[in-house]
Amino acid sequence: MRCTKPVLQPLPKIFNACYMITSLPIPEPLPPDLHQQTKPVQLLQGLQVLQLCADAEFLNHWEHLYQHCPWATVFQSPAFACTWYRHYHTAYQPILVLATQDEQLTGLLALAQDKRGNLVAAGASQAEYQVWLSSEEHAESFINEALTTLRQAFPHQDIHLEYVPAGTPLAWAQDPNGWGAYCISKTARQPLMRLDQEKIAKELKKKNRREKINRLKRAGNLSFEKITTGHTFRNVLDELAVQSDFRKGAMYNKCVFQEDPNRKTFLQDLFRQGLLHATLLKVDQHIVASNVGVIGNNWLHLQGLNTHSPFFAKHSPGILHFLMLSSMLAEEGMAVFDLTPGANPYKDLLATDYTEATTLTIYSEKRLRKAKLKYKVNTILKQQLPKIGLEKHTIGGYKQQAQMLKEKALILQKTGAAPLLQLARQSIQAPYKYKHYALPLPPAAAASPVELQRDSLADLLRYTPGNSLTCRWEFLMEAMKRFELGQHCYTWTANDRLLGWAWLADAKALQAEGIPGAAILENGVALHSVQVPSSAAAALSDFIRAVAAEAGKDSPSQACLFISQNRQQEKALLQLGASKLRQV
Fold it and tell me: Matching Pfam families, A to Z (predicted)?
């Protein structure tokens, strides 16, 4: 047991009616004289759930059940679930299934229904582990009764629980004569890092770790900091969100903070309640890596927010941060750094132990047959495809290409045929050969209508395809690779839109991209991949002039080298008085 049993007052009396909600303030606590429920298992929805989340007596019972449930994680705590309900009740209808006995809470399943009708665990994708709570003696009886109650209320909806934690009683899910007939489950390996200060110290002293740490120290003052105040957390959260969206947008096409307006305030609320452990790795004032994880039961879960800056990627700041964080956690007396399920190489590098979590879906009768057929086909493909040379990483590449094509199809849906017509025009014209120009730097005092930012990830996240078939995923992926090669980017935005961008690269970076001109640069740098959308094409000359002025500030030369990649750029450069160096 994880705590001594507190003295509990009888449960508050619960409404039997169900309410749907749209947008509500935090409700007042339930009056103590409401009538008592009579059903052993009861389904509550909407306003009813929010009212219980504001009732101190009910929360006391929920906390007691959570503390005494052997398989519970922090994501089932009333603090986490009720906080999520408060921030997301306009996007998800709260649902609670409760069981009581002798005025005590003996079972609880916290769910929510999204706008499409899907039933998910409270917390949705932000709850790493998803499971019901019950006393040990009601371990299987509660979930069977809860599912029966849910099926009556939602006969056509599936119930999905992502990563049911190890140790949860799941024999019922294999019973073909019960709910097991409707279940499909898959196990996932869950890497854990048991926190041993001595082993962590040895890992940090390894030659390759020391070299990377020393390189970061040469770049500036290296510091590892824990965020302890809400004020500091609020101040850095915007930057962490941008770093996270940029990296995950490039890798997985997911910009969760950009797409979820509630996420920041939700995290701030969790931090205020002590449910988050937040750390930063900094070089001077630059955040090079960070982790904001959910803590509970002496574990830190790698769920919440973890980032690293693309400008320091060659020094592996992410893995260094995790090792420094592990050392801090060991000093603080934490037992386990839960690296969470997921096929990431760095997790296997850090893991000292493994357990298993289970993805569990309880299907409606309507969708059961199709789901089982799909599961069987996928299982056969996974077994047979490697035999013909299609390994997992190859299949992953094909999936990514398919997703890219889907993104391009969505662009065509929104913009019509304009991108295709542009491609057709380009294919008719003779292929353009890169040309190199020296553009005289404008006078230092010259005014420009274009305001630029250098290396702004936030600006790049404002990219929209316009008349281009380059989707956001491709754009961010290319940008991340260029930053990791040491390139710099100048951006121009207005009214929250990205209007122009240009890249500054040295000879080595140009060579890596296959852009000719490395030989002409010697030890210098050149601007390339200058773009403005068709809506801002008239301002191309202004943009090029402004970029040249910024790029030339730290250069002893009186001219800026440009690599033109289309006829529009060449025309603009000539209008600005650029001289052609040589054709490559």
Answer: Acetyltransf_6
